[in-house]
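Issue 218. Parser rejects a valid record. Input:
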Amino acid sequence: MDLNSPETDTNIVTQQEQELPKLYSKRLILSFSILFSTIFAAALLISNLRRLEKQAAAAWVLLFAVGYIVATAIVMTALNLSPSLNVIANVIGAAILNEFFWNKYLGSEIEYEKKSWIKPTLISVGIALVVFSLLFMGA
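Output the parser choked on:
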């Protein structure tokens, strides 16, 4: 019996034969954090985690993102820092999301198919427009 024959490999499925999960990329998470906010980037990572049925990990990411946004606002207000420094805070938030949470819960070497950025971008722009219009109407 030849162990290398195709008949002996019927139960082995290679990664290429499996359907890769569709996930938002680390680059998109970074982009959303810079353009919108760390909470928007966290929503993408949470979507990835839920797709892979990692509900507990998704809860930790949500907890981190909310805590990070609140802590950033408190520090920036207490130190009377320029709102333009918020971009730096968002980059740091994205780095934590990608380098800690992604690597811990998804793995740095995970193979996946990139999910389209169009739908989350349209949703995020819509939310941002509503928030900005409410801010300007109230001013």
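Fixed in the parser; the record now loads. The CA atoms of residues 5 and 20 lie 26 Å apart.
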